[in-house]
Design brief:
321 residues, alpha+beta, FAS1 domain, seven-stranded mixed β-sheet, elongated, signal, Fasciclin-like_AGP, FAS1 domain-containing protein, FAS1_dom_sf
């Protein structure tokens, strides 16, 4: 009964959004107590207590070992084992299946990497994490936390796990896989697009999709967005002008959350992806609703409406001129 009550409460939290603001539609960030509860509820009773060492403020993916798998490594430290089998960022099964054979991704344990391989010859290939099969994929996914179930023989990761293993004859692709930062940016872009779609900014989400490969190369970015109503309403040039000049609304390689943006004095300039065109703070922030911040004389009306560890999105009343 307790398990059922916990599951019901999760469903209510995730679905009781009718009549709330768009910001309330965003899923709450994971925290260690919730992660522990999720793992326990999903049947990972031995691994659940070890989640206390996992970070609770960033998106993560956990490859949770079953209780029987943990028995295969009686000398393993469970807290360390769970850190080694957890990744920063979101890695659903369909994304893992697209990675090159032997791709290495740095785990939450320092200098320890998980190796992703696939095989089986089936229409939907099996995915293995360090040789252990994901037998229960995508058990939980709320947009900030993904849990997969692992079944197999476990061990701690090698100190050489982030390089080609020196003690085996396994061959790996000669070309190294993209960096972890590249993967994280791609995941944060997908996260931002999902949040924009459910917040009334679906056209902006489509625009990001169109520039996905270009934006993936950035380390971080700040985006100024207009909502669908403004896009279709045609105010101030509307969506056609915005879509054509999306790069003019992006500050590349700078994460400018509201706390930092509002401190800029009048006259502060911001470099955009169109390098010959800059943004200028024309009204400083901190004045409240009656005296909002303006950039290029356009009101910034929604601050931090999307915010993850690579991307922040602020809402505009009109496109920039």
């Amino acid at each position: 009964m307790a398990t059922a009550a916990v599951l019901i409460s999760f469903i209510l939290i995730m679905t009781s959004v009718t009549g709330t603001s768009a910001a309330a539609l965003l899923p709450p960030p994971p925290n260690t107590s919730l992660i522990t509860t999720f793992l326990s509820t999903l049947g990972f009773h031995d691994a659940a207590p070890a989640a206390i060492n996992l970070p609770g403020a960033t998106p993560i993916t956990i490859f949770a070992p079953t209780d029987s798998s943990i028995l295969t490594c009686p000398s393993c430290s469970l807290p360390l084992l769970l850190q080694e089998h957890s990744l920063p960022g979101l890695y659903p099964l369909h994304f893992l299946g697209k990675l090159a054979f032997g791709t290495k991704i740095e785990s939450l344990a320092a200098n320890r990497c998980l190796t992703v391989t696939s095989g089986g010859g089936a229409a939907i290939p099996k995915i293995f994490i360090n040789g252990v099969e994901i037998t229960k994929p995508d058990l939980f996914n709320n947009g900030l936390l993904i849990i997969h179930g692992l079944q197999g023989f476990l061990s701690h990761l090698s100190p050489f796990s982030c390089t080609v293993e020196r003690m085996t004859t396994l061959s790996f692709p000669q070309q190294p896989p993209p960096t972890t930062a590249f993967f994280i940016m791609r995941l944060m872009l997908k996260d931002a697009m999902t949040r924009l779609r459910i917040s009334g900014y679906s056209i902006v989400a489509l625009a990001l999709r169109a520039k996905y490969s270009e934006l993936s190369d950035l380390k971080s970015m700040t985006l100024f967005a207009i909502d669908d109503e403004t896009t279709f309403g045609g105010r101030g040039g509307g969506g056609h002008a915005y879509m054509a000049e999306l790069g003019y609304h992006i500050v590349p390689n700078r994460l400018l959350p509201a706390a930092e943006l509002l401190r800029f004095p009048i006259g502060t300039t911001l470099t955009t992806m169109e390098r010959d065109r800059k943004l200028v703070v024309t009204s400083a922030g901190g004045g409240g609703p009656l005296a909002p911040m303006r950039i290029n004389y356009v009101k910034v009306q929604r601050l931090d409406m999307v915010y993850n560890n690579r991307i922040v999105v602020h809402g505009l009343s009109l496109p920039f001129h």
